[in-house]
């Protein structure tokens, strides 16, 4: 799971609202932190502004540039997943997609807004980037680096599902320059993993972790989700302790959510399927707090409201870049980008994405051009996820006292 603008597929006109403390149950559509500006405001009317942003050379003081690569393939679709993923593509179809992805990056490399700009980060997200073969991955990376070299990038991040990894594949991932490996563990109780539709079980986690440590990646992050269907206090305590024993450099703890287009949500809305044993928000927050307390006792320190880190130099360049409004090219089906204040999304359908690439065009689908005030609001919303705001940062960048500007909203949060 990526920690910000991954290639999701929100229901049209149904933006999830930030969940308030007074909402007790985990309802369909209740999401901890929502996107801003809301997707319902995005449309074709701002696409010319997105193209204009790409056609304009960056200013000398332009933000740094990052590259997001969406690899939308998975062994199974998790029942809580809301990302654009495919579980039915064969090797030839995967190769067709990866060729299109490489051509998209090659197209971007010639845009005036991008040409000769060094990459600050590269993020392989999904889906499951580790699903594709070592052969596919090596060939893709060679084309990507020929178009946009990243040897000087501060971070190359790569998401993995434990059951897709072999030692040879991990060696390939290490060889292409990955510095931050992120494993989606989610839980270490096999029954909970199976019930929630995860493809892996705990024995696969324990099989791969020695290889991961042996290969000495600069940083190893693991993801957990508090409040998965079937979770209890006992199972959560065990998952937290087992995670500590795995000795990662950082741990990111999400809370179970139900956006509209998940398997669980569709079953709930249609009345199909068995009743779900879903923890309420108060319980999930308690589990989240417990995990952070245990990680702190084990020597971790807070990196954000979601992430604890064991090593002082552990960081997440991609997250910090997105939350501070840096430019990012999002490539692949349904991916999101932002360039010079204009946000835009790629075509969300497989056929439309490949068709645009085959025609020699960028697969732009919808866009939204933000005002300076909207950029300020977006950064405040996203940086709340750090667990604290730095007024001096906003004063230097926007010449605004956020404590004064957002006084009513901040008071409301404190009161909750």
Question: What this model shows, in words?
Answer:
The protein has 416 residues and is of the alpha/beta class. The chain is 38% helix and 17% strand. The protein is built from 15 helices and 14 strands. The strands form three sheets. Strands 9-10-8-7-6-5-4-3-11 form a nine-stranded mixed sheet, with helices on both faces. It has a three-stranded antiparallel sheet with strand order 12-13-14, covered by helices on one side. It is globular and about 55 Å long.
How far is the N terminus from the C terminus?
28 Å
Averaged pLDDT, please?
Answer: 91
Computed structural class = alpha/beta
The major sheet is characterized as: 9 strands, mixed
Q: Helicity level, as a percent range?
A: 25-40%
Enumerate how many helices there are, as a single number. 15
Query: In what range is the share of β-strand residues?
Result: 15-25%
Order of helices and strands: EEHEHEHEHEHHEHEHHEEHEEEHEHHHH
